Amino acid sequence: MFENILKNIREKSPIVHCITNYVTVNDVANTILASGASPIMADDVEEVEDIVSISNSLVLNIGTLNSRTIDSMIKAGKMANKIKIPVVLDPVGMGASKLRTETTLKLLKEVKFSVIRGNASEIKSLVHGSRTSSGVDVSVEDIIDESNIVDYIEITKELKRIYNGVIAVTGPIDIVTNGEKTYIIRNGQENMERVTGTGCMLSGLIGGFVGGNPDSILDSTAAAIATMGLCGEMANERIMREDLGTGSLRTYLIDYISKIDGKILSGGIKIESR
Question: How confident is the model at residue 128 (pLDDT cuts 50, 70, 90)?
Fold first, then answer.
């Protein structure tokens, strides 16, 4: 289903400019590299426009937000819009603090985003202004399951109507929509939550996928999310088999991203469209 999307990334090796979380920046870069794309992590306000101008996509992640990088994000985002490359927003911890909330809303006002990806608490906070996040993690009461999936489909569609672009809410079940077509993805493994930054890694991966497939934002976002989930499943199976821990899970996750191809993805993907 997504074979050409993977092929394009590896043939084009799109440059992904990330202004991201310093806790996870190395893992984000390695995940992007594993996919076949090329990361560049530049956040100084004096160079972000130059870096964006040679890039194929931009990822903005507010996970370790500080006043120095806010201006850099806005400046980079405006340049990305000017040259018409995809921009991905990861509103980490949206609703957890006044600074995060105000910065996210400012970014959404100043920059046009191709993809907004967050956990259920972050997405609900964007739509309803609620503050239900547990720091940067999803609140237990917000976790997506079969009982509330229809509600979350409507929430993502509502957010799309407000901000346009593709909306992705990720968790045990992932929802990706452009308002007209919605993908439901059921890949992934709960042990992935025990590795810090898997959400940041996913946003970087989305940056690579949309950078290599700028005319297929919805499908490439869904493909990135399915790839991350399936590779997490395979990595977990291996650490269980070898009686290893979460450090190995992190390593094998990146390993499997580097090895996945269209045949493996098509054989393991758990996806439906509505």
Answer: confident
Q: What are phi and psi of 206, to 5 degrees?
A: -60, -40
Please give the model's pTM, rounded to 2 decimal places: 0.94
Long-range Cβ contacts of 152-160 (<8 Å, 24+ apart): 152/120, 152/123, 153/177, 153/182, 153/274, 155/123, 155/124, 155/127, 156/123, 156/182, 157/182, 158/127, 159/116, 159/123, 159/126, 159/127
Write the DSSP string, the chain. Answer: --HHHHHHHHHH--EEEEE--TTTHHHHHHHHHHHT-EEE----TTTHHHHHHT-SEEEEE-TT--HHHHHHHHHHHHHHHHHT--EEEE-TTTTSSHHHHHHHHHHHHHS--SEEEEEHHHHHHHHH-----BTTBPPGGG---TTTHHHHHHHHHHHHHHH-SEEEEESSSEEEE-SS-EEEE----GGGGGSTTHHHHHHHHHHHHHHH-TT-HHHHHHHHHHHHHHHHHHHHHHHHHHT--HHHHHHHHHHHHHH--HHHHHHH--EEE-
Order across the sheet with 182-185: list the strands: 38-40, 15-19, 57-61, 87-90, 115-119, 166-170, 174-177, 182-185, 271-273
Q: Are strands 271-273 and 57-61 parallel, antiparallel or unpaired?
A: unpaired
**Burial class (CB within 10 angstroms; exposed 0-12, middle 13-18, buried 19+) of 188:** buried
Smallest CA-to-CA distance from 37 within 10, 62, 59 is with 10
Judged by average pLDDT, the poorest of 122-136, 152-166, 188-202, 232-246 is 122-136
For 196, the token pair is: 């810090």
Say yes or no to pLDDT of 142 above 80: no
